[in-house]
Amino acid sequence: MAARTRPAADPPTRTPSFVCEVPLRVTRPQERILLARLEAARQVYTACLGQARIRARLVRESKAFQRARTLPREDPERKRLFAQARGQHAFPAYALHAYAQPLGRSWLGDHLDSLTLQKLASRAYDATNRVLLGKAKRVRFKGQHQLDTVEGKVNTSGIRWCADRIEWKGLVLPARLDARDVVLAHGLACPVKYVRLVRRKLGAKNRFYAQLVCEGAPSQKLQHTLGQGVVGLDLGPSAIAVVAAHDALLQPFCPEVAPDTQALRRLERHLDRQRRANNPGNYDERGRVRKGKKRWHVSKRQRQTQARRREVYRKLAATRTRSHGQLAHRLLMVGNTIQLEHLAYRAWQRTYGKSVQLCAPGMFVERLSRLAGSAGGTIVDINPWRARLSQTCHCGRVKKKARSERWHTCPGGASAQRDLFSAYLARFVDPETSLLDVGQTQTAWPGWEPTLHAAYEQAIHNQPARGRRLPAAFGRPPVGPSQSGSLAEGSPSRT
After folding, report:
1. Where are the alpha helices (DSSP H) in 299-437?
2. Which in 5, 202, 319, 324 has the greatest CB count within 10 A?
3. In a domain, 329, yes or no
4. Are 495 and 416 found together in one domain?
5. Are the C-beta atoms of 321 and 314 separated by less than 8 Å?
């Protein structure tokens, strides 16, 4: 009798998703249960991550993997050898699921369900796979009380959203719902794919939230409309220049993020004194940390100081996120195609460490791309080596400038602030070739020169945010002819 064949199943279709976050009402007994479950999840994640790292090392050392690396990318044998190396050492994600399932038969199963165990195993696999693919250098293990999120796979079992509450293994957590919130109402009206529980530390207290991963498109507020036209953007570590269809803007980047450096320094010094007083044996006679394995004692007052410092950085992060969102929506309101140079923002940390840490330009570009994609806009990445916007004039002349030169001048008489001029040129770059259309820039320049000068004057006369000075990247225009008629040299720019 011939065997019956089953038709191949269609691959699962991916649907658009968005996240709707809801705060939860958690009592003290429920908080203790949640903290115990988060700690259990951390131990499962640590075990899976350690096992995944061992298997990834064996895959990397296998002959099939080494052979595949020598083959060209278009060779089909390369893909087969990579799959063979992973299969020999049980490195697929489902193999880690099989490793995590027996953990549910221990005491960990009293705190976690099987779907949560699978998601923790997948999380460990993704982190290790990034290292295997060369996208990360190493994996990071979570210390005690450092795992803040757990999530399920579906909304039918495990961590579930039920109308107005979260249910998880006998734990019922009601949500704080605001009937006047239109965005929240839109999210609750959409089908829920799965639920993620998030713990945030506000000072010495814990706050819990439910992130509902819903199917569909996110709600868009009425004031967040999408404009039309091409927008040139020049983003720096501490300043941003924008040139839209009819207007230009120069301003400090994230001016609202102004930390109290004196207060932070006092906290850091106070924390260092407490750490030294609690662990005198971990320092040598010169005050340096001893080498080798050590055990650090943390007092109750030191934990309170750490909580105060953590709260300061949490507020700075929240302010930065809000500033990024407001600026991204403002850019999308003036144009639907935003053109900017594709830069290595992580490399800026070597030269502009404090500004990058404070303003996070890479995070802003990522959020801008995400908002533009959901609103129907387009982000065009310009190749900086081909366009050379900071070195090129509108007439096509290319001259290398030092980073300290903050004002662009042309022998033909044109002059403008360097960032504003780069943003102006970005509007006329061909998205396909990343080459500047010199004819269009020359034709449009007479009408744009006064607009760029007005944008610079407005940026200079605007009061900076409290605690932040105007960025040195703004520079100063060169000094014109003196009263005697001789040309005076340009004043040095502020660096």
Report:
1. 300-334, 353-359, 361-375, 384-387, 418-426
2. 324
3. yes
4. yes
5. no
- Integer Cα distance of 396 and 414 in angstroms: 13
- List, for residues 76-125, the tens digit of each pLDDT value: 999 999 999 999 999 999 999 999 999 989 999 999 999 999 999 999 99
**Residue 191 shares a structural domain with residue 328:** no
411 in Cβ contact with 378 (< 8 Å): no
Is 337 within 8 Å of 372 (Cβ atoms)? no
Write out the two tokens for 275.
Answer: 């750490």
Q: 199 lies in a domain?
A: yes
Q: Please provide the average confidence, as pLDDT, over all residues in the chain.
A: 88
Q: Which of 189, 215, 241 is the last residue of a domain?
A: 215
Q: What angle do CA 362, 363, 366 make, to 5 degrees?
A: 90
Whether 211 maps to a domain, the answer reads: yes
Q: Is the dihedral of CA 82, 83, 85, 86 positive or negative?
A: positive
**And the tokens for 54?**
């061992």
Paired tokens of 133: 């693919």
Beta strand pairing call for 378-382 and 337-341: parallel
Closest among 424, 447, 253, 246 to 335, alpha carbons compared: 246
Return the pLDDT at 68: 93
Q: How many helices (H) and strands (E) does the chain have?
A: 13, 14
At 364-406, the pLDDT tens digits run: 999 999 899 888 899 999 998 988 888 888 887 888 888 888 8
Specify the length of the chain in residues: 495
| Cβ–Cβ < 8 Å for 438, 430 | no
Which residue range is the domain that position 452 belongs to? Answer: 224-279+300-495
Both 199 and 346 in one domain: the answer is no
Residues 146 and 252 in one domain: no
Return the half-sphere exposure (C-beta side, CA atoms, 13 A cut-off) of residue 331: 32
* Rounded-to-integer distance, Cα 259 and Cα 236, Å: 19
Cα 341 from Cα 351, distance rounded (Å)? 18
Classify residue 171: in a domain, yes or no: yes
Does one domain contain both 206 and 234?
no
Q: Are strands 230-235 and 337-341 parallel, antiparallel or unpaired?
A: parallel
What angle in degrees, to the nearest 10, is found between the helix axes of 300-334 and 261-278?
Answer: 150
- Check whether residue 466 and residue 358 sit in a common domain: yes
381: β partners? 340
The pair of three-digit structure tokens given for residue 364, joined into one six-digit string: 């802003």
Of 197, 215, 233, the domain-final residue: 215
* pTM for the full predicted model: 0.79
Amino acid at site 171: L
Q: Could you tell me if 192 and 111 lie in one domain? A: yes
Q: Judge if 252 and 326 occupy the same domain.
A: yes
Give the number of domains in the chain.
2
